[in-house]
Amino acid sequence: MDGYLDEQFVQLEELQDDVNPNFVEEIVTLFYRDSTRLILNIEQALEKSSLDFSKLDTYMHQLKGKTTRCKRTFQQLKKEYSTLKKKLETYFQMLYRSFVQFARQIGPVETACRSSY
Fold first, then answer.
1. How far apart are CA 56 and CA 46, in angstroms?
2. Domains of the chain: which residue ranges?
3. Separation CA 6–CA 42 (nearest Å)
């Protein structure tokens, strides 16, 4: 796969997690399903004796649009991922500070020992 997949694909893989373990497969499957249909339409249009350039142009634009939308969707996904990450980091920092403040208020905690009688 060397030379075919770029850094964006690696970043897409990094967004896959236990909650959505098939994320990359789903995105790629959707892209290829639509692209395959468009490529078939283009091939069929090219095989005709009289070419309908208007139809070919439409198919080409649709194919280009799929590629562009795939990239745009990925960029939006990266942005949302980054925003979520920052918000969660802030949340956990606040939670930690609250815990530390609470621990200071209650003071040292002594461990209870069972009596041996």
1. 8
2. 7-104
3. 27
Which pair of tokens denotes residue 2? 């060397």
Tens-place pLDDT, residues 82-113: 887 888 888 888 888 988 888 888 877 665 55
* Residue scoring higher pLDDT (90 or 15): 90
Q: Which residues of 103-112 are buried (b: 16+ CB within 10 A; e: fewer)?
A: eeeeeeeeee
The secondary element (H helix, E strand) that includes residue 35 is helix 23-47
93, 31 contact by CB (below 8 A): no
3-state secondary structure (DSSP) of residue 92:
helix
Q: What is the DSSP string of 36-90?
A: HHHHHHHHHHHHSSS--HHHHHHHHHHHHHHHHHHHHHHHHHHHHHHHHHHHHHH
pLDDT at 109: 61
Average pLDDT over residues 30-35: 83
